[in-house]
Each structure stands twice: as C-alpha cells, then as structure tokens.
Fold this sequence. Notes:
8-stranded antiparallel β-sheet, 17% helix, 5-stranded antiparallel β-sheet, 2 domains, SH3 type barrels, 23 strands, alpha+beta
Amino acid sequence: MSVDSTVMDRARAVADAVLYEGYLLYPYRATSSKNQARWQFGVLGPPGAERAGLGENSSMSAQLLVRDATGLRLMVRFLHLQHRRAERALESGGYRLVDELSTPTGSWMTWDEAVETELHYGPWDFSDPQRRFPVSAPAATNIEELTGGRLVRERHGVHGLLDVTVEAAGAVDRVTVTVHNTGAPAVDRHDAIARSMIGTHVILETVSGGFVSLLDPSADALVAAHGCEHHRCFPVLAGPPGCDELALISPIILYDHPEIAEASRGELFDATEIDEILTLRVMTMTDEEKTQARATDPRAARIIDQCDGMSAEAMLDLHGILRNPHADPHCRPAGLIPEIPDGVQWWDPLADNAVAPETDGVLISGVRVARGSRVRLRPVRRADAQDMFVAGKTARVTSVHEDVDGEKHVGVVVEDDPGATLRESYGRHLYFSPDEIEPLPETEP
C-alpha cells in the first residue's frame, strides 16, 4: 500500500475490529453458552456447506465506483480456525487429551483459536479489465511443550479465489470484487468451519484517482451508485474524512470513514459492544471466572488484564461523549436555544443538530442561564415528591433542554448535596422549568 502510513493505520484499526467482531463474547469463557456457537460475521464456508446445513455461503461480492483511477491494490484478510488440543503427559509415556491442562505457568483449555491471514494483490492495472488471484492459507500443525503436557495446534488448508473486474459506468468506473471459497465439500460442521474464511473483508487502494461514496454519491455518479449490488458485505470509504483513496468491503454495515472511539482502551470483541458496560462486568467477575477466561484464549486473558488494570480516569472516559456530527462544538457561539429551521420536524436529525444542551442557554428574568450558572430553586409544579426537599436551595446548572412541544427544561445539581459530584459525573440531574428557577449572582453565598 502506498498511502501515508498513519492513514493506513486508521483504516487497519477499523478492519481489525471487523476481523475480530464476535470472536469471543462476554464472559469470555469456553464454558459459556454464548461461546458455543462462534464466528458470527464474514464466514465464507466450503462450497455446498450452506445448502447441506453444515456452514455458511461460500462467497461475498461488492461493487464499488472509482473516478480517474488506473488500477487498484487489494488486501484480503480473514481468520483461519486453529484447533488447540490440551494434552496431559502420562507416566507410562504418551499423552492424553484433556479439557484443561494446568501447568505452573498457567492453565490451558482445549479450544478453537484463530490466526490472521492477510494476502496482498496488485497493483492491478485496469488495462486488463478482469483478473483472478488465488486465495489460500496452508494447513499446519504446531506443538508447544509445557510442564506436564503439551498443546497441539492444528489448522486445515483454506483455498479460494479473488475475482476483480472493471467496467465503465457513465462518468465513473464500476469495480466488482468477489471472494470465493473453493475448497472441497465439507463432511460435517466442524470440518466446514475449519476450512472457512472467517471475518472476511477486503481493503482496497486506488493507484490513482479515488473511490466514490455509495452512501453519498456525487450527482454524476448517482445512477451508477444505485445500480451497485452487494452480496453479504457492505463497501464504505475508509481512512480519515477527506480520504478517498481507500475503501473497506466489510461483512457488517458501517458508515463512510468509520473510526475507533478514542475512549476505547482495547478490543472487547463482543458484537455491538458498549465498552463501559462490558468493562464493569469484567471487573465484577470472580477470580475463578477470570482464571477460566484466561485459560480459554490469550486474547481473553488480555481483556481481563486490561479491565483489571484500568484507572478511574480511563473508566470515566468510557462513560460517553456528546457530539454534534455537523459542527465543531468548540466553535459554537454561546447563546440561547436556537430555533429549529423552518420546515424541519422535531423527529428530523437536523432538529437535534440545531441544539447543544451543554452550551445553550435560556433567559430568566432577563438573565441568561446556562451551564455553570448558579440558581435558587423555587419548585411550584410539584412534579416530584422530592421538590419539597429542594425548595429554596441553591443549585448549579448543568444543561438546558427543549422538548418536542417547545417547553424548556433546566438541568441542575443541588450545591449542598453530598453526592452532587457523583450525580453530575453520571448525568443524574434534576430538571426544572425556567419559572421554577431564580438566577443568582455568582457572589451570593
């Protein structure tokens, strides 16, 4: 690949997340019922496996649009199943298969791991409009000797093809990419997954020119974009915003220029994961459960260590960030809640984008009240039984909101509440109408 290394690294980080999506699910133990059926995404099984009920469909294909391109470089990536057998040494000689092998350095379970396969092709010149490349990962057997036993890792061969074609499509060119598994028919389910390509995806780079977004195509490519067809995958622009030299054919639906959340501290593999919840759950696992997870898979062991070693600051970062996807929040002028544009209904995303509760304000008795303002609470609506307990108390404003009926609401934390800091960190605010709030000078005690 010839794009800048930092650009490629950002695309590869997303591709890695796709590769391992669903690899292992919480609680990350081989004995967990959730981990009895694995390999959820991008599985290309041997021919006939799907029809026989033994595995997945054998191919995936996508069509992309390129403009002013003369060729492509391609990278096919997938996981290759590796069966790990734990065997205990016998006093009489030889070995016996066991579910778990305990050694002075740790425990190991009999388990299906996976190894990464990454194959590079090209540059492919468009002067040849159709090319076929071999895709394969060889069979292998590796033995790791341990005190009191050994681990035997075995992989079956995986064989397939990568077909690429290009054709004119108006002002742009349409590229069709297909990955096939061409191995022998499977004899059973274990054989099918052992010879499948798992988490299969393709990274593409233009030799010149760039890709056209299929989610937001230009006017001259609109018809061609609508004519693109995909089978078991979803192509998007990859790399940072503004980059059109990279594309990712993903087995899961993404948006253009997908990114890994800055707050994430590492891979958790759990499909549609919520880092904070999963991290908290891992922290509450018993020592015995954590030992079982570590014995299951080296990647599970890293997750346990990562969560156990997380600092309070890192944990707080996982709690969430509010972002306006269409504007820089740092450049937003401080003012009142803006009016929703004419013709925009409350359910339209543009209505949400018009407001920013942490910087918007509301006028109360001619005074602008916004985040950080000090106020005195004068509840009159008795919307909650605890209103009587906070009447007359001073509070600090945390946010200003407007509901779909146009009613305004001010979020606050009570100043003399011993749990105010905790409540604010978790977003557990009290809400009052502007007519229940009295603005205070900052100097008033």
